[in-house]
Design goal:
The chain has 9 helices and 7 strands; from the N terminus they run βββαββββαααααααα. The chain is an alpha/beta fold. A 5-stranded mixed beta sheet has the order 1-2-3-4-7, covered by helices on one side. A two-stranded antiparallel ribbon has the order 5-6.
Amino acid sequence: MRILPIREEQLKERLGERFRELDVPLLVEWLDGRRAALLFVFEEETDPRRFSIHRLAHYCLDLSVLCETERVVPVVIFLHPGTYPEQLRLGSEQQVYLHFHYLHRALFATPARDYLTSSNLVARLTLPTMAYTPDEKFEVIAAATRGLMDLEPDPERRLKYADFIDVYAMMDEAELEQYRQRYPQEAGTMMRFSERFIEQGRREGQKEEARRLLGTQIQLKFGELPDWAEQRLTQADQAVLEDWSAAILSADSLESLLRQH
């Protein structure tokens, strides 16, 4: 099968109306044609009190019209404890004219121990959001880290997903020190990811500063920055930006400056 994210568009009577925006819908297609495509509508709610079943139903109806399909599967994932309606029934005493319900998963009530060795990367990354006893916390975080290393080969995605684990784990300094003592290998792995993340942020900050300074130089010498030049500056790496900054003093025109490299 093929899984495609689709655009988040809803029907609006007037341009000024607010969008009902949820997480990206996914269209699942069977390439051999043996089944019609299914449209999965995902919503994540950190706080169940903010969940609106009416909004979800309305959104699903809009997508059904826009995508010309009745094969819509709504799914809601709840992170934190709380109560939420599981179905919506509209009608009278005699008849029900609309009965809407959805698939739901309460991660806070899902036993983490059931997924400690799961081969599903998403399950491993979200282990710290599942249910476990205080004594199991470090084991759960270590299992999430091992899952990241074993199941995700892409270094850049590892860096991104490591930040998820760190945020989900919510360890204070005392817990972090205990974790290092009990799981030194996994803690060392996360520490290296944190250092790389900080270094990446520093480099991106330097690049943004170089781009800002060059943009100011260009405006002072050549006037307003056109769209095509703005695009060149956005795409250039830091070394190229620094070369352009050095060459701008002798450049005859903006075109000749940005033709370099």
